[in-house]
Amino acid sequence: MAVWNLGSINEDIVYSVPHIPGPGETLAATEKRHYLGGKGANMSVALARSGAQVKHIGALGADGDWIVLRLTEMGVDTRFIARTAQGTGHAVITVDSNGENAITLWPGANREIPLEMLQSALSEARTGDLFVTQNETNMQEEGARIARDMGLSVAYAAAPFDAAATRAMLPHADLLVLNAVEAEQLREATGQGPSDLPVRDVIVTLGARGCDWVRGPDILHFDAIPVTPVDTTGAGDTFTGYLLGGLDRGQPMPQAIGQAIRAAALMVTRKGTADVIPDLLEVQEFRP
């Protein structure tokens, strides 16, 4: 089977700083790095490295040739990445000495994905495939609706959190992935906690505390693997990509979650985003 990812693609510029700057504060960076990123691209790379066949649906500006080449090298099908007049999306990321980050996004071409590209891509999908999207592009709801009508399972990562977008997506989603902050934001916006949502499976990631798998009234907790983080950027995307990759290969949910936790734990010990997402062999051999 295949995983169809309607997702963002960014150029990431990462600055290492002693601490995350506060309002009005000017802070000199100690290091500057440049990576391929974006929640969608990160998930596609994690999916590919977990062994899944992933088709990325997205958009870049005219400056995106290097990104298409890089994604192709990483095993991602890039045939459905459009070119638009908008420039390629980018993110400015500051990472402090504890590995925590703050991110400023400019969406650029990510909000200009043509409907024709989405339709062309999903015309090749087959019943039993999986569709995933996040909140950094346009047409999430349209994509989910088309996917459901074609018999695909729909996964949705509600990040960056947007109350209106999340409300619109909930009726279409079979699997919802969000972190603890996003879960609280969703509760404030809808009055519903993870157990109350009209979604079959909800995964709430809890950072260093692991994650919860919520299915109706039942909640199963999974502990994180203790590591010393150097950069948490992309850890959630790596978790989601490996989770979906495991499910696509037929793993039961607990096994897929365990694999995703290992991948995310290994990811936070590395500096970078899509370029440093571990492959399946590294995850299986990881001994913290």
Automatic annotation (TrEMBL):
Positions bound to ATP: 179, 205-210, 236-237
Q: Where does substrate bind?
A: 10-12, 38-42, 136, 237
Question: One Pfam family this chain carries?
Answer: PfkB
Its recorded reaction(s) are: D-ribose + ATP = D-ribose 5-phosphate + ADP + H(+)
Which residue positions are annotated as catalytic?
Answer: 237 (proton acceptor)
Enzyme kind, highest EC tier: transferase
Q: Which domain of life is it from?
A: Bacteria
Q: Where in the cell is it found?
A: Cytoplasm
Q: In which pathway does it act?
A: Carbohydrate metabolism; D-ribose degradation; D-ribose 5-phosphate from beta-D-ribopyranose: step 2/2
Q: How does it assemble?
A: Homodimer.
Q: In its UniProt entry, what is this protein called?
A: Ribokinase
Chain's gene name: rbsK
